[in-house]
């Protein structure tokens, strides 16, 4: 009795492992295909147009504390763009100057978001 149970369990383990090897092979092939596609994309030597942007909040107030906080919290980041947009802007161009209407209604403060181009770069 025990011998037949042990043989059944061993057979079950062997059959279960056969299915997994097919799955592993399929995943390895899929991984190899994805690596090949990534290599093709990396080999394409297209120039990348990068804009260095600065985003900051601006408040209309006499409080020096608010102005210092806005200057400290300003973000600078890089953003890849297409060639047409890259050619249409220059350093110092203000991309976004949006009034914060919700802050006026909720908090009674006047302010806006400013996003300006701080630099341009073409990477190979």
Automatic annotation (TrEMBL):
PROSITE patterns: PROKAR_LIPOPROTEIN. This is Lipoprotein. It comes from Arsenicibacter rosenii.
